Amino acid sequence: MVAVSEITRKPTRPGTAMALSAAGFAVLALGFTTSTAAVGGLAATVALAAGLVRGSRRIVDAAGGLFFLSLLFAGASGAGTEALLLAAVGSILAWDLADNARSVGDHLGRETDTLRLELVHAAATLVVLAVGAAVVYGADRAAAGGQPITAVVLLLVGVVALVAVVGR
């Protein structure tokens, strides 16, 4: 007789660990901007952890929104480009990895060995984010050198569109 076991449809452990690590990195980077942004990032990390424990897409998405608001606050307070870009890469990576851990866990179950799958996903996402951050950093340096601001804005819109399309 074959034993049939029920699939635990919760976020995977490797994906959860990677998402929370990226969130911690984002909070650390936000700490180099303002303490208020860092507290917002910490609240986002707590929400992300709650979303992963419950397996809730809404809570994970709300955590992404909190990261976004923290980044906006840090940017509005005049934070440096480098710290903002690092925080943005960390927070987007955390949200994406959490969403992926939730999705993979829902489809394959928590017990399935998904480490290789999730490492490849994390690496691909990180490459896309690093390229986007490099373009934004280059645009920032070009804008500081007297380039037309319209070109910089259009370039940034293109990077956001690229990240949005590749992310989904």
Automatic annotation (TrEMBL):
InterPro entries: DUF7519. Keywords: Membrane, Transmembrane, Transmembrane helix. The chain crosses the membrane at residues 65-98, 119-137, 149-167. It holds the Pfam family DUF7519. This is Uncharacterized protein. It comes from Haloferax denitrificans ATCC 35960.
